[in-house]
Structure formats: structure tokens, C-alpha cells
Design goal:
Elements lengths: L1 H44 L1 H5 L1 H6 L2 E5 L7 E2 L13 E4 L10 E6 L2 H7 L2 E4 L1 E3 L2 E12 L4 E5 L4 E6 L7 E2 L4 E6 L1 H20 L5 H20 L4 H10 L5 E5 L4 E6 L6 E2 L4 E6 L3 E9 L11 E5 L8 E8 L9 E9 L10 E9 L16 E2 L7 E2 L13 E2 L4 E3 L14 E4 L6 E2 L13 E4 L3 E7 L21 E7 L5 E3 L1 E4 L6 E2 L13 E6 L13 E6 L7 E2 L13 E10 L4 E2 L4 E8 L2 E9 L6 E6 L6 E5 L1 H17 L11
Antiparallel strand pairs: 1-2, 1-3, 4-39, 5-41, 6-36, 7-16, 7-20, 8-15, 9-11, 9-14, 10-13, 11-12, 13-15, 16-19, 17-18, 17-20, 18-19, 21-22, 21-23, 24-33, 25-26, 25-27, 28-29, 29-30, 31-32, 31-33, 34-35, 34-36, 36-40, 37-38, 38-39, 39-40
Helix pairs in contact: 5-6
Family: Belongs to the membrane fusion protein (MFP) (TC 8.A.1) family.
InterPro entries: Beta-barrel_RND_2, BSH_CusB, HMBD, MFP_Cation_Efflux
GO molecular function, one term: metal ion binding
């Protein structure tokens, strides 16, 4: 018994030791796996950085900036005076940054390019179409519906159409009904005819005229009750009163509603049948608010339905409702669809596609704005409490003051109002603020611009401390920036000519590149009483002639196809870029251009609305440019690590330099 207890104790001891060893081995294995995975992940994150580490070390730091506030610039590392984040270094321009509009430049080794699987594509001209997809409902064409109603009160003795869905032809008999009023009116008509025959040769003209008036009145009553001219002539010839009248089909179509039964009495105007011509139907569809700009009356619509797979019905947009549904945020459109074979049935669900060439998109008019805060010049409803970029069209916000700014998209001023002028006598004997003649010598006053005094002021980018000499702001330590103002003859200080960064980072009295975001500054002119006017950039397009059967055959002038002899058709192509090549930051669109030998240059581009898998290029690229379509996000990440963060995103990341 004692031996058995010792054996069991030894057995339990061995089991416990085995479990402990297994647990320790599992922990060691998991630690090894975790270490290996972390190392692999870190290698994957830094493979581009490791391939270009030596190049980064050789670059010179030109200043330190905040990742969240790129307007902050310091000559040494430290904390951001606004958010207290660690400042990140911004390095000197690399190769390729000399190109106009370049925001960042990255060079990758061959190994880095293979690891990143970089793919490129050459941009060129192509036919672009925008497809708007929606679902619709087939409905009756209201213009092709008709109601068969009782023209006179009476009793329905016979219905020639017994059920709905029956097809009828215009003029076909539908209802046979008895009407006492019709019988009495026929008697009155025959009596008027007999009276006229008796008094036709009467010497009393009043009697003859009265009889003729009675005949006309009863005849008109018969016509109003649906009796035709032919039936009235037959009544006058045969002198037989008909007890019943027939109601005929007013149009050809389908009986879609039947309201009455045989033997039922009806009053004037009561509906008996409803007819509808289904040779043409309506397709009602909803278009969302953001797609409304694409839709126009007259555009072609392709309708498909699961009932007829592989077949398409072609129609046109005939009407766009002038109001928006506030619940669905959509507007309803109506399309006319031919349906001669009656295959489309009312209440049938269909799929619709509206294909619009991009060049058909109407250009929006230039917009004037006014206000006192930061607003977008093209979208006055978009406002901000600080400088920035409009998310709609990448136009910088403008701070409106008592003096209004004016600028074009090319950075040139365009006059749309009058500045301050005075009218001076050529003999210098009289000055006036209005045109006219000199009261002293009688000469005509000449218009001259009023003189102004310029003042240069250095201001803190955060608007904390203005001064008249360049120095550092005592509040935040940032370098003061130069701003030019003028003093008008009335003593009011207003801004005149200023070179302003499109990102509204800073202003300068000289043209050049913004040191914060690396964009070219545009010239802004301030004038009293003048609003801002912005010219929109146009699409880059060309016209060619191509064969519909052989698209590869093209010509720049009208000609015949060299392969089939068909006449070439005129088409419009637009400079387009693949959508995969575009990095959309929310405030601008960035593209990386392959310059060869592993060198990639990031540029901001202005693009039109997306059309399928492409964007039309409006500004920033040329035909033949090779852009990165795959791994461009990795290349952009590398530019973040080498000092391009503030250039592209305003520094949307925190990065600590290793010490």
C-alpha cells in the first residue's frame, strides 16, 4: 500500500514537471515568433527607407517645422509653439525638385523598386465617358392615356370589351347605351326639320331664322353627346330615331381599367374605361444630388431588365423635375422609351445607364464672393475660421476684409471694378473726384490714379506681434513675415500688391516659392469695392477622326478608313490619367512622375470629375508623362520620412529624429 502511494506521487510529480516544461517552451516559441514577425513587419515598413538611408543622411536640414502646423518654422529642433509637438526636420531639395511645380523628390534603388512592385503608365489622350447608373420604374406615358366616359346620362345595355388588358383600335365600338335625353333630342331635331320645310318659303323672315336656329341648337347638342356628323345626316335622311348610341375608342391602346357593368346607369362624365397606348412608356428614375450636374434633357439612356437578359432598350431623357426630394436627396428624371413590341410593362423595375462624354459637362460660371471670414471663391457656402484649401476644387480660402481681393487661377489680376481715381486739370489749376471740365480754364479734366503711401510691416504668421523690422516673434519664436500695405488719401490702410501662398501660409512682396508648402505664390491685388474673380482651368482635349469598325485607324482630319473604306467619325479625346495614379489627400491630388533611374517627382495636379477608371487632366501633366500607378503610396510614405511631409499634407504625422 505504501509503495502504491509513492508510485502515484511520483507519477503526479512527473506530469506536473512535464506541463511546466511545455508551458515554458510555448512561451519561448511565441516570443520567438513575435520577435520574428515584428522584425519582418519592421523590415516591410522600412524597406524603402533602408534602401535610401545613406541619401537621407547626406541631405542638409534647412529648417524644422511642425507636422500639424507647417507654417511654424524654426532653425533648431524643439517644440511647436502652437500644439507642443516635436518639430520635424525639412531637408534641402533633392534631385528633380528643380522642376516647376515639384513638391517632393524620391530616389529608389533597384532593390527598393522591386520590393515595392512599382508600376507605371504613360498618360495620353483618350475618349472619356461618365456612366451614371440608377434604377427606374416603368410607367404609363400620361400623354398617351385616354378616358372613355358617358357623354349623356343613360343605361349601359352592352359592353363590347368585357375585361381589362384587351387591345383596342381607335374608332372601335366600346359601349352601346340607351339614353332618354338622346331620344328626346332626336325628336326635337326631326321636329325642327319638319317645321323648316313648312316655313321655308314663308314671307316672314323672323320665322325662318328662328327655325334654322332651332335646327342648329339641336344639332350641336347631338354633336356634344358624341353623335357624329354622319349619324346626324343619316337621321335627317331616314327620319328614324335611334334608341341607343355607341361610344367609340378615342385612341388605340390597351384597356387598363373597367369601371362599369352592363345594365348599370351612368351620369354624364362618369368613367367607363381607361385606355393607354403602350407603344411608348416612361421610365422614372432618381438621380442623386452629387450626380445632377451630369444629367441634361436629350441625353441617351440605356435600359436593361432581368426579364430580357442581354437586351437593351434605348430612350432619351425628356424631363428633369425642378425640385429635390429632401428625404432621398435625389431628383427625379423622366425618360421616353419606345416600346413598339409592348415588352416593357408598367410597374416593371429596370436598370438604367446614362453615358455622358466628359466634354459635355457644362462649365460653371465664374463666381463673385464677399464676406469677412475665410471663404472659398468658387463655393461661398464653404467657410473656415482659418486659412486652408477648399475640399471641392483645391482653391485657397480667402480672408475677406474691407478691401476685397481679386485674382485669377493663373495668379494674374483681372480688373472688374474701379480703383480710387482723381480728375486733374492739365494746367494743374483744379482737382476733382468727378469727371468734368475745369471751372478755371475750361479744359477737360484728366483721370489719374490717386497717390498712395506704401508701408512694409513684418507680421507673425500667427498674427501675434507685428513690427516694422524683421525679427523673431517674442510670443512663439517664429520668424516674422513681410506684408505690404498702402495708405489711401483718406488715411485708411489697405493692402495693395501681395504675393500670397495658395495654401495661405504666408504673404510676400516678391514672387517665388512658399518656404512652407513649396508651392508657387500667386499675385493678389487688393482694390476697394472689387470682388474676387477666378477663371477656371479648362480640360485638355483634342479632336480626331476614327473608324467605328477599326478604332486603331485614326486621322487628324476627315478621311476614309484605310481598312474598310468607311467614313471616319469625329470624336473628342481628353488628356487622362489612371485613377490608381492619384493620391487624394482630401485637399489636393498628388501624382508621382517617373523620371527614370529610380527617380520619382511628386506634383500636384488639377483634375476634372472622375470618369470610369480615369481622371481628365486639367493642369499639371503633359502627354507622355509616365506616372506611378502602383506603390505610389509607399513612395509617398518615403517622401514623408525624408522631409516632404509639410510639402504634401501639411505634415499629417509626427516623426521624431533619432539622436
Amino acid at each position: 500500500m505504501l509503495f502504491k502511494q509513492k508510485f502515484l506521487s511520483l507519477r503526479y510529480f512527473i506530469i506536473i514537471v512535464t506541463v511546466i516544461l511545455s508551458v515554458l517552451s510555448g512561451i519561448q516559441i511565441s516570443n520567438y515568433v513575435e520577435t520574428y514577425c515584428n522584425a519582418s513587419l519592421q523590415d516591410g515598413i522600412n524597406f524603402i527607407s533602408s534602401a535610401n538611408a545613406e541619401e537621407t543622411k547626406e541631405k542638409k536640414i534647412i529648417y524644422w517645422t511642425c507636422g500639424m502646423h507647417p507654417s511654424v518654422r524654426m532653425d533648431k529642433p524643439g517644440k511647436c509653439p502652437i500644439c507642443a509637438m516635436d518639430l520635424v526636420p525639412v531637408y534641402e531639395k533633392g534631385a528633380g525638385m528643380e522642376e516647376e511645380g515639384a513638391l517632393a523628390s524620391v530616389e529608389l534603388s533597384e532593390r527598393a523598386r522591386k520590393l515595392a512592385q512599382v508600376k507605371t503608365d504613360v498618360i495620353g489622350f483618350r475618349s472619356l465617358t461618365k456612366d451614371v447608373y440608377t434604377v427606374g420604374l416603368i410607367e404609363y406615358d400620361e400623354r398617351l392615356k385616354a378616358v372613355v366616359s358617358a357623354w349623356i346620362p343613360g343605361r349601359i345595355d352592352k359592353l363590347f370589351i368585357d375585361f381589362t388588358g384587351t387591345e383596342v383600335v381607335k374608332g372601335e365600338s366600346l359601349v352601346w347605351m340607351y339614353s332618354p335625353d338622346l331620344v328626346s333630342t332626336q325628336k326635337e331635331y326631326l321636329l325642327a326639320l319638319e317645321t323648316f320645310e313648312k316655313v321655308e318659303n314663308s314671307p316672314f323672315k323672323e320665322v325662318v331664322d328662328g327655325t334654322i336656329s332651332l335646327i342648329d341648337a339641336t344639332k350641336k347638342r347631338l354633336l356634344w353627346w358624341g353623335i357624329s356628323e354622319r349619324q346626324i345626316e343619316e337621321l335627317a335622311r331616314n327620319r328614324k330615331i335611334k334608341q341607343h348610341t355607341i361610344i367609340y375608342a378615342p385612341i388605340s391602346g390597351i384597356v387598363i381599367e373597367k369601371k362599369m357593368l352592363e345594365g348599370q346607369y351612368v351620369m354624364t362624365g362618369e368613367m367607363i374605361y381607361t385606355l393607354a397606348d403602350l407603344s411608348k412608356v416612361w421610365m422614372m428614375a432618381n438621380i442623386y444630388e452629387y450626380e445632377m450636374a451630369w444629367i441634361k434633357v436629350g441625353q441617351e439612356v440605356e435600359v436593361t431588365t432581368p426579364a430580357y437578359p442581354g437586351e437593351a432598350f434605348i430612350g432619351t431623357v425628356s424631363f428633369i423635375e425642378p425640385f429635390l426630394d429632401d428625404k432621398t436627396r435625389s431628383v427625379k428624371i423622366r425618360c421616353d422609351i419606345p416600346n413598339r413590341q409592348l415588352r416593357l410593362k408598367p410597374a416593371m423595375y429596370v436598370n438604367a445607364r446614362i453615358r455622358i462624354p466628359v466634354e459635355e459637362l457644362e462649365e460653371r460660371d465664374r463666381t463673385y464672393v464677399s464676406g469677412l471670414d475665410y471663404v472659398c471663391p468658387n463655393h461661398p457656402e464653404i467657410k473656415s475660421s482659418r486659412p486652408g484649401i477648399c475640399p471641392e476644387d483645391n482653391v485657397p480660402f480667402i480672408k475677406k476684409t474691407s478691401a476685397r481681393l481679386e485674382m485669377t487661377a493663373e495668379g494674374k489680376t483681372e480688373g472688374i471694378g474701379e480703383t480710387e481715381y482723381e480728375y486733374v486739370c492739365p494746367m494743374n489749376c483744379y482737382v476733382s473726384d468727378k469727371p468734368g471740365d475745369c471751372p478755371v480754364c475750361g479744359m477737360h479734366l484728366e483721370k489719374k490714379e490717386m497717390p498712395v503711401d506704401e508701408t512694409v510691416t513684418c507680421i507673425c504668421p500667427q498674427e501675434w506681434d507685428p513690427d516694422t523690422s524683421p525679427k523673431s516673434c517674442p510670443m512663439c519664436g517664429m520668424m516674422l513675415q513681410k506684408s505690404i500695405t498702402v495708405t489711401s488719401p483718406t488715411g485708411e490702410k489697405i493692402q495693395k500688391y501681395v504675393y500670397m501662398c495658395p495654401m495661405a501660409c504666408m504673404t510676400s512682396d516678391k514672387p517665388g516659392e512658399c518656404p512652407d508648402c513649396k508651392r508657387q505664390m500667386g499675385r493678389w491685388e487688393v482694390r476697394e469695392g472689387v470682388g474676387m474673380k477666378v477663371k477656371k482651368t479648362e480640360h485638355r482635349k483634342r479632336t480626331i477622326y476614327t473608324c467605328p469598325m477599326h478604332p486603331e485607324v485614326t486621322s487628324d482630319k476627315p478621311d476614309n478608313c484605310t481598312r474598310c473604306g468607311m467614313r471616319l467619325e469625329k470624336i473628342t479625346q481628353m488628356l487622362a490619367i489612371p485613377a490608381t495614379a492619384v493620391l487624394d489627400t482630401g485637399v489636393r491630388k498628388i501624382v508621382y512622375i517617373d523620371k527614370g533611374n529610380g527617380q520619382y517627382v511628386g506634383k500636384e495636379v488639377i483634375l476634372g470629375p472622375k470618369a470610369g477608371d480615369y481622371y481628365p487632366v486639367m493642369e499639371g501633366l503633359e502627354e507622355g508623362d509616365r506616372v506611378v500607378t502602383s506603390a505610389n503610396f509607399l513612395i509617398d510614405s518615403q517622401s514623408q520620412l525624408t522631409g516632404g511631409a509639410s510639402a504634401l499634407y501639411g505634415g499629417a504625422m509626427e516623426f521624431k529624429e533619432e539622436k
